């Protein structure tokens, strides 16, 4: 009996070590290495391993395999809000990349998954913001709508006041109300002055309005707020390229972005390389 218990403990430890190592590889954007480790694990069919595999496939752009893995994770652990969230994201990307016949089906599945994620955990802010994005962007016949987005924004306010104002900015942009959008962005920045993301949103808005000097100054504030954030480099380079200005500086920013490690929250290296080509 003692040997058996020791054997079980050793197996559990090996699984935990495999999963932690796979998560570490994922955090370093080494997605294929993470998948290889998971595939070799004796517990590869466990919900946590399936969910991590799905996220790896998602990051690699193989959304079909991502959906397959995440559906298995949700079936094995149907009460996990984050599994439904990532399943929604995978179906969303399948909707964006599929043919016109199958895209609506994936869009509806994405909405259902986001709604389930919020139902299971009303405090899951990522799920709420992804569902808000769906309502904002999707047409009514797929379950979207500005009224639904606005109602959800009110619920988001109870969790994150700055996110609420950022969401109102996006609603105002859709309604072609740039003055209201800017007021909401500035309110978000005032509530989270050390957030590079909020400053980036404002800088991009100012650039779209042709207020390039103010935009550049706001990007500088974002870099000062979060000196280690690589997203600021990417966002400013992208903004320069979209406006066809300061292309030499855009190239320098992207080259700096591509140096050193990235995280899963950063735009993929492949996207930065594509952007770099546009700046040539």
In terms of structural class, how would the helical and strand content be classed? Answer: mainly alpha
Low-confidence stretches: 5-12
- Total number of helical segments? 15
Major β-sheet profile? none
Strand content: under 5%
- CATH fold-level name of the domain at 37-121: Serine Threonine Protein Phosphatase 5, Tetratricopeptide repeat
Rg from C-alpha positions?
21 Å
Order of helices and strands: HHHHHHHHHHHHHHH
- For this structure, what is the CATH class of the domain at 37-121? Mainly Alpha
Number of strands: 0
- Share of helical residues: over 70%
CATH architectural group of the domain at 37-121: Alpha Horseshoe
Task: Tell me the CATH superfamily of the domain at 37-121.
Answer: Tetratricopeptide repeat domain
Shape: globular
Termini Cα gap: 68 Å
Instruction: Compute the average pLDDT.
Output: 94
């Amino acid at each position: 009996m003692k040997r058996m218990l020791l054997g079980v403990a050793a197996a559990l430890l090996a699984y935990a070590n495999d999963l932690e190592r796979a998560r570490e590889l994922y955090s370093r954007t080494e997605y294929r290495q993470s998948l290889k480790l998971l595939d070799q694990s004796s517990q590869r069919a466990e919900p946590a391993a399936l969910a991590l595999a799905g996220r790896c496939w998602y990051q690699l752009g193989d959304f079909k395999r991502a959906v397959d893995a995440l559906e298995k994770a949700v079936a094995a652990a149907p009460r996990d809000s984050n599994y439904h969230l990532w399943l929604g994201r995978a179906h969303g990307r399948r909707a964006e990349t599929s043919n016109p016949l199958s895209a609506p089906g994936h869009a509806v599945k994405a909405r259902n998954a986001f709604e389930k994620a919020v139902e299971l955990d009303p405090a899951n802010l990522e799920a709420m913001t992804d569902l808000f994005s769906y309502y904002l962007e999707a047409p009514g016949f797929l379950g979207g709508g500005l009224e639904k987005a606005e109602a959800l924004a009110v619920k988001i306010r109870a969790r994150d006041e700055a996110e609420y104002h950022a969401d109102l900015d996006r609603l105002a942009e859709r309604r072609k109300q740039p003055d209201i959008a800017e007021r909401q962005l500035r309110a978000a920045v005032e509530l989270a002055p050390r957030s590079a993301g909020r400053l980036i949103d404002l800088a991009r808005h100012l650039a779209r309005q042709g207020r390039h000097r103010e935009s550049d100054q706001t990007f500088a504030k974002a870099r000062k707020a979060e000196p280690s954030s690589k997203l600021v480099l990417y966002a400013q380079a992208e903004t320069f390229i979209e406006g066809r200005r300061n292309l030499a500086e855009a190239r320098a920013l992207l080259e700096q972005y591509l140096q050193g490690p990235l995280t899963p929250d950063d735009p993929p290296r492949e996207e930065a390389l594509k952007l770099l080509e546009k700046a040539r």
